[in-house]
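User: Here's a chain of 150 residues. Predict its fold as tokens.
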Amino acid sequence: MAFNHLLGRRGKLLYGAGDEEAGNIQDLTLNITNSETDVTKRSDRGFRTTAPVLHELEVSFTLIALAQDDPLRVALNEAYLNSESIAAKVLDEEDNGPVGSWWVQSMTRNEEIGERIAYDVTLKPEEIEDWYEDGAGTYDAELDRFVFGG
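Assistant: Prediction complete.
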């Protein structure tokens, strides 16, 4: 019996110029929110009303430390220490998600006794180049926005 569910375990983080898949990560999370502005008017009868202003993205995951020279750990560490960004795509199993350059906001190393060393990593966008839907870009330059659903 086939299941019609998107599974979290099939999500992926591709990084670097060669789209290397980060195989040693856990709990990949793409947090999508909006900032807001107050648009309350007297006619709102005492209720505060707001409107969305900017989209905000944040990527977080746990990186399992396999070796000191692990390519993803090295790339993240160098990007963090040099205040540079890292190219990455954050995709679900149908290849939907943001593509861009991300800076390392935090990289917290956990060294719990009896556990393997792991890093809790948070990335924030420096530039969003595209947003893939079914593996294809959806940015409409003429409209200067991302277009979903045709």
